[in-house]
Amino acid sequence: MNRRNFIQKSGTGGLALFSVNTVAQNFNLNPTELKTLDLKNNINHSVCHWCFGNIPLEDFLKIIKKMGVKAIDLVGPENFDLLKKYDIHCSMCQGAEISLVEGFNDPKNHPQLIENYKRIIPQVAEAGFTNLICFSGNRNGMNDYVGIENCVKGLSEIMPLAEEQGVVLQMELFNQQNHPDYMCDSSIWGVELCRRLGSDNFKLLFDIYHMQIQEGDIINSIRKYHKYFGHYHTAGVPGRNEIDEKQELYYPAIMKEILKTGYTGHVAQEFIPINEDPISSLQTAFSICDI
Fold it and tell me: For the whole prediction, is pTM greater than 0.85?
């Protein structure tokens, strides 16, 4: 299971990460029965709803609000009013992209992407949110340098609007195991794109799970390139599951390094829970990262 498959399938009837019976047996959706977490909130916590995809969004908002978490990732304008209802911030908006594989590196996508982003950017700003995701797209035989030039050309058409509206476009880094042929698959490539665009309103979404698989040396990358990283995602390696002691990343140390950089944005949990009680797994993840 990955987000690409989820996004592709969710438009045609949705998809459950757990069976209805598992959900019913392992936790109660009544938020009054959940405990509020005792969070320091040195890290601004968030979570990607798609990983808990068979829990209706409104129920999920109630759950994280009860926990004391004030943000959620990867929600589009069609649900901004629902977030406002529960006073939940959208720490990473979506809805302007075509797909993960059709991005700014291919000029044939530029007309549709420019139209989409020019429509969605003002909606993000009007809602009081800041971050909006974007993707490089797949190589499809394209040279990486050509891809950067194409990305600069396409993104330059929308950066003035993003700057005017106070919206930060964030291109996500992926690994090649989960997303074969995706172009923005290294910190160096992404940083070079940021440098060429030269705008504080373009950053990289540094997915710790993806970059551990693709290049490792996570803490050193944060130290060297943190000014280009505008958002962080988490998950356990291997497997993209819980970030507990059964996987290889030590998230408390990573979170401490993120804080040292002066980062004030959000860190969003994006693991796919496999434990019997996924909400307990989420609570544990927040606690692990709450250094």
Answer: yes
Residue 177 near residue 136, CB atoms below 8 Å: no
- Terminus-to-terminus CA distance in the chain, angstroms? 29
Token pair belonging to 180: 């074969």
95 Cβ neighbours under 8 A, 6+ residues apart = 76, 77, 78, 116, 120, 123
| CA 76/CA 96 separation, integer angstroms | 9
In a domain, residue 278? The reply is: yes
Position 32 in a domain: no
Q: Are 16 and 24 in contact (CB under 8 A)?
A: no
* Tokens of residue 105, six digits: 């590196």
The 10s digit of each residue's pLDDT in 58-76 is 999 999 999 999 999 999 9
Identify the domain containing residue 240 by its residue range: 45-289
Distance CA 109, CA 124 (A): 22
Q: How far apart are CA 93 and CA 287, in angstroms?
A: 24
The count of domains in the chain is 1
Q: How far apart are CA 36 and CA 235, in angstroms?
A: 22
CA-CA distance, 255 to 222, in Å (whole number)?
Answer: 10
Strand partners, 206: 232
Tokens standing for 74? 């990867």
pLDDT tens digits, one per residue of 216-249 = 999 999 999 999 999 999 999 999 999 999 999 9
On whether residue 16 sits in a domain, the answer given is no
Number of neighbours of residue 38 by Cβ within 10 angstroms: 8
Q: What is the CATH number of the domain that holds 82?
A: 3.20.20.150
Distance, CA of 7 to CA of 30 (rounded, Å): 27
